[in-house]
Amino acid sequence: MGLIGNEGMLGATLALGHKNAPIEYVVKGAGSALSMESIVFQQCMVNSPVFEKLIHNYLYFIMLQSLQTGACNNFHEVQKRLPRLLLLIQDRVQSNHFYCTHRLLATMLGVRRSAVTISASALQQKGFIRYNRGHIQVTSRQGLMKASCSCYLSAINIYQKTLNTP
User: Which CATH architecture has domain 78-148?
Assistant: First the structure.
């Protein structure tokens, strides 16, 4: 499971020489996206060292993010992982409102839907979120940050160190 917002892209594996990725991608948010032909992407990699470095930094970010998520899923309870995931989604959609069902959250967290329902109910009772039939509103980002495991701040640090460097 991974999240991609305006900081990323699908198809970055082209930079590694792989035209096909054995991954299923699902778009769950509204918005616009840009696209380019793979040959144009590869030409940009050859002709622009800055573009090549940006793509390599992004691939490094994805690798570190995957390792962080794996460790988080292994060591932290759902009650800490759900706030982390909600914060990451909020960062990607850049809004306090988004649509995400308990089933999808459960899939993303690798847990049963009932575990998400219990954890989301606790977050709602604390006033950190409001949700109804997949519509989620973050009402206290600070509350979610306090409820989250330390992996959210680690994810932010990874992002800043790998994608915000020239």
Answer: Orthogonal Bundle (1.10)
